[in-house]
C-alpha cells in the first residue's frame, strides 16, 4: 500500500512540475501569432528583434574572437618551437666549433692565445 501512495505522490508532483514548466516555456497565443509576422521594410524593429539581433552579433563576435585567439596561440606555439629548435642547432654548432678548436687550455681559445 505504501508503494502505491509513493507512486501517486511522485506522479502528482511530476504533473505539477510539467504544468509550471509549460507556463514558462510557451508564450501566449497573441505573442506567438505576432512573432512570425513579416514586418514592412520601413517599419521600426521591435525591441525583441533588436535584442535577438544583438545577441546573434555578440555570439558571432565571441566565436570569431575565440577562433582568432586559438589561431594566434597555435602560431605562437609554432614560432616558439621553431625558435627553440634553431637555438638548439646553434648551440650544437657552437659546441662542435669549440671542441674542434680547443687548444687544451682553460678557458679555451681566445683568452689563452700565445703571442709570438
TrEMBL record:
It is found in: Secreted, Extracellular space, Extracellular matrix. One of its GO terms (cellular component) is extracellular matrix. Residues 45-57 have a biased composition (Basic and acidic residues). One of its GO terms (biological process) is embryonic skeletal system development. The keyword Coiled coil applies. It holds the Pfam family UCMA. Keywords: Coiled coil, Extracellular matrix, Secreted, Signal, Sulfation. Residues 37-57 are annotated as: Disordered. Residues 1-23 form the signal peptide. It comes from the Eukaryota. PANTHER family: UNIQUE CARTILAGE MATRIX-ASSOCIATED PROTEIN (PTHR28647). May be involved in the negative control of osteogenic differentiation of osteochondrogenic precursor cells in peripheral zones of fetal cartilage and at the cartilage-bone interface. Belongs to the UCMA family. This is Unique cartilage matrix-associated protein. It comes from Pipistrellus kuhlii (Kuhl's pipistrelle).
